[in-house]
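Protein modeling request. Please complete all fields; requests missing the sequence field cannot be processed.
Requester role: graduate student
Desired output: 3D structure, token encoding
Chains: 1
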Amino acid sequence: MIRHTPAGWQVAVIEPKREPDGNQKPGITDKKRQKTVLALPKGLVDPGEKAPQTALREVREETGLTGTILTKLLDIKYIYVRSWGDKQRVFKIVSFYLLKYESGEIDDVTPEMRIEVKQALWVPLDEAERKLTYRGERDAIRKAREYLQAHAEEAR
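Delivered output (156 residues):
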């Protein structure tokens, strides 16, 4: 989700709520866990939903904002190991869309979503690539910047 302000373009990001590491030894801090994680909103496709609908819903749920889709940016593919239950390897494809801000207040998130989202905030688009934690999401920001260079008026 992007918006244009007098100061320039901004992108809505989230700080996911993180679970403490139950395997950590008492008195020992994990420096990696202390770093603030910033990410783009995303989530699972609900039954009967298409990826664009999921993007709109997840952004609304995780940030409190509504918008319209400007374009699909990219798909990222990765494997992760579940940290719960069976510890299985999961192959995942995440589709990122560029959304234009329409309405809502950033971080107006329901109590139910606070389980997943610590906070939602606007960051300058020029800083997002540096601040986002995950490489695939930084790639999405690069694609968004390329799109805006070619379609800035359409996106305003």
